[in-house]
Amino acid sequence: MTYPTQPVASHYVHGAYVEDSAGAPMEVNYPATGEVIATLHEATPAIVDRALDAAREAQAEWAALSGTERGRVLRRAADIIGARNHDLSVLETRDTGKPYQETSVADATSGADALEYFGGLAGSLTGEHIPLPGGDWAYTMREPLGVCVGLGAWNYPTQIACWKAAPALACGNAMVFKPSETTPLCALKVAEILTEAGAPPGLFNVVQGAGRVGAALTTDPRVAKVSLTGSVPTGKRVYAAAAAEMKHVTMELGGKSPLVIFEDADLDDAVGGAILGNFYSSGQVCSNGTRVFVHRSIRDTFLDRLAERLQGAVIGDPLDPATSFGPMVSEAQLQIVQSYIAKGVGEGARLVTGGQRLDRPGYWITPAVFADVTDDMVIAREEIFGPVMCVLDFDDEDEVIARANATEYGLSAGVFTRDLRRGHRVIAALQAGSCFLNSYNDAPVELPFGGVKMSGVGRENSKAAIEHYSQMKSVYVRMGRVEAPF
Ligand SMILES: NC(=O)C1=CN([C@@H]2O[C@H](COP(=O)(O)OP(=O)(O)OC[C@H]3O[C@@H](n4cnc5c(N)ncnc54)[C@H](O)[C@@H]3O)[C@@H](O)[C@H]2O)C=CC1
């Protein structure tokens, strides 16, 4: 028995499901068929208000616990998620259209990793003792920020909810999370599970809606921090609104990342990396290496091997564990991808394979590879967020570094080479936050994840995330008399 797709109610506030049918209806489609699988309501101002009040109340109680006690709740939630991975993965597949083959290993499991990791760290979050001249000394205290808001994209709904909630809660904050309006189902399960694991009511609330609800959360004076996973244009708006109130932010935004394949690379590994970096989640991954720079001397061999490997993609029922390639998340996203494919053809790039909409219900398109792409083409400059790989030729190292960096984005970068000195040298020169050497798109919780340049601010995961969900108080302690001038 898997979870019903229609949730008990649209929102989860103060430890329970709540509904306010005055909110505009939101239909949820199963991307593989287009069928409506749930109807929810956008949060009204009254729901947003209740969620923020509940979070504020819970935060004070939660912050008064020891880190070990808080961590225990997070680790229990991780265990529950692990035990229900199958049901959560089926729901994620129905919400996003991503194949079960992926959701069962990369979504709830990655969320559980974050809860376990930050649950483990919670008890070790301390300040410092600082000795000073004359016997004076100081100490620092690591304090929570207060109520944090999480705003999610549609590609990894469970993972994004957990990646934001886990460090926030470990540090003693509460959260109001707004999932993407396209994929609103799984964050509700995360909320239910946190309650079951012992989180006080109001610690993690979920409210539904689109940008208007996100904007109301971002500007509310009860909110200390906003963490967004989304596109660069949304990031600019949310960052500006948060800055007006001097709120903390984490911005995990889009990219157009380079993947550089040198002539000495292991060809099969490089092709595998390019597949993972372009076609996983049907290309709907922010860190994808969509500008694949291939050394001219191996370009044709690379393309032949890639075309061969793409024959192995199993495009079909996403719930069938054998399926390895699913639909786009929505008709709108599919149309964006189709329009970029038309632009690429119009600009003179060579469509080697794929890019065809499948004649079936749902939002299906075959994985597309463009060759002979040049740096100035729109398909090489703009984030497509779909299964479209651009292959660009290069001749030497300095040239490819300069071209790879010639973008406003800086989320990820990958290098394939057997020459390890060159590998490290090139990675060091690439302007990107999350890099891969002879690999692509790995995101274990132990590693900081995030971008430079327009791709974002702050880091998720790893100990680095603690810095972004807490603040230091410093206390000077004078041991002698106070000497004043008059
Ligand atoms: N760096 C990262 O970790 C990741 C980045 N992304 C990026 O996300 C994008 C795709 O996701 P989308 O859901 O289409 O992004 P989006 O930017 O349209 O929406 C992201 C979230 O922001 C909310 N939002 C929209 N306008 C808002 C406003 N004015 N104030 C507050 N909230 C607002 C949306 O409702 C949604 O929940 C891509 O650009 C992708 O690269 C996706 C996954 C991971």
UniProtKB/TrEMBL annotation:
Keywords: Metal-binding, NAD, Oxidation, Oxidoreductase, Potassium. InterPro entries: Ald_DH/histidinol_DH (IPR016161), Ald_DH_C (IPR016163), Ald_DH_CS_CYS (IPR016160), Ald_DH_CS_GLU (IPR029510), Ald_DH_N (IPR016162), Aldehyde_DH_dom (IPR015590), BADH (IPR011264). It comes from the Bacteria. CDD domains: ALDH_F9_TMBADH. The keyword ATP-binding does not apply. Residues 18-475 form the Aldehyde dehydrogenase domain. Its EC number is 1.2.1.8. One of its GO terms (molecular function) is metal ion binding. GO terms for biological process: glycine betaine biosynthetic process from choline. The active site is at 252. It is an enzyme of class 1 (oxidoreductase). Pfam families: Aldedh. Belongs to the aldehyde dehydrogenase family. This is Betaine-aldehyde dehydrogenase. It comes from Lutimaribacter saemankumensis.
